[in-house]
Amino acid sequence: MFQYIDVLSVVISVMGLLQAAFLFMVLRNEGVSAWQTNRWMSIFLLALSLSFLRDIILLFGGTAVALMVEPFLFAAYFALGPSIYLYLREMSGNPARNPIRHLYPVVGVVICAGFMIAMVFWKYGDVLLGGAPLRITFESDFALSVIACGLLFGLFVFVITYHIAFSKTAYVYCWRLRAKGDVESLARRRWVLSVLLCLHVVLCGFVLSQVLQMAASDMHWSNILVNAGFVLTLLRLSFLLASQPFRMGGRNAKPVATGSASPAKSVVVDEQSAMICAKLDDVVADKTTLFDPLLTMPKLAAKIGVTPNQLSHTLNNALGQSFFEFVNTVRVREAARLLCEDQERTILDIAIAVGFNSKSTFNLAFKRATGTTPSNYRTSPAGEFVDADQTFTQRTATTA
């Protein structure tokens, strides 16, 4: 009969697995070009999911079954640091050469851990298969204890090394973004720092769990607390990845197809650009979709019935805007109208109503579009957009 602490452990583990699966779907929804970067985050999620899976296997399969799969579960920890490092390298536009070599240690750890588990079954197989608890110490088995501590020490060194490496990569990238100074770069910088904080929490929580395993005799509550922390971190990470206002992908991202390719390959021709612009006019007139703070390129593409590559091509070539610039233009235009028509409404309330997550982001976007701040615009509405009523279809025809 399961104790309540076992049930709680399984519930948290299942929540973690479901959250990781949801986050994986978010990454897949970003499209083919973003997958070049997101594949490394997917490997990170897979490795983290195995941490949740361990408790479920131990509870329902028993110690013997858990030990049989332990080489793979333990080796997955060695994929956490490299996957984050490669993810940030791709995202910063500086992908690593031969990135797969960073995951070679995982294979070596599987072999070493498998050898150790084979020794455990060779020496204590009868005890394990009989269902009796097994506790190995330096006094009872010095050789196995040395191998286990060696693997754990190697894991600590490995995690810390990559922790330093991906932190350096992220901070250098953020410094470059800050030097650019435009709204999109500053928004990306804040997003990267938020993601980095989540990754710091995950890896620090992992190291804490391993230290507690060595120091504590009863690991139930410590494991539950660490896994619960992982679940909360994944929730935050899901929000950040779902609400990112830009597409991902480094220099290796696949280019959007041009008009010379086959029409069967998601190619945007002039007629399609006109059709997409007409649908964008409908979306803008709807005044709901573009004000969603969780809006992404794939979401908008699905709304108008085209692929993300087709939408990106039209925005870049027909309208001369990135996805981020297009969305902000519409949001700022609506905010400008509200600032003039509803004088009693606060600027923060208007910013949130049109889809911005903070007042500072709204102020930067508004000033970039109008040349003045929202408060100055409200008192002197002469700075209103000259093309405020021009549709995107008309703008496409003008630029053509």
Structure description:
With 400 residues, this protein is mainly α. It has two domains: 4-242, Rhodopsin 7-helix transmembrane proteins (Rhopdopsin 7-helix transmembrane proteins); 270-399, Arc Repressor Mutant, subunit A, CATH 1.10.10.60. Helices cover 73% and strands 0% of the residues. The chain is built from 15 helices and no strands. Mean pLDDT is 78; it is low at 245-269 and 383-400.
How many alpha or pi helices? Answer: 15
The termini sit apart by 73 Å
Q: Give the CA-based shape.
A: elongated
Radius of gyration: 26 Å
Structural category is mainly alpha
Proportion of strand residues: under 5%
Taken together, the total number of domains comes to 2
Give me some keywords for this one:
mainly alpha, Rhopdopsin 7-helix transmembrane proteins, 2 domains, disordered C terminus
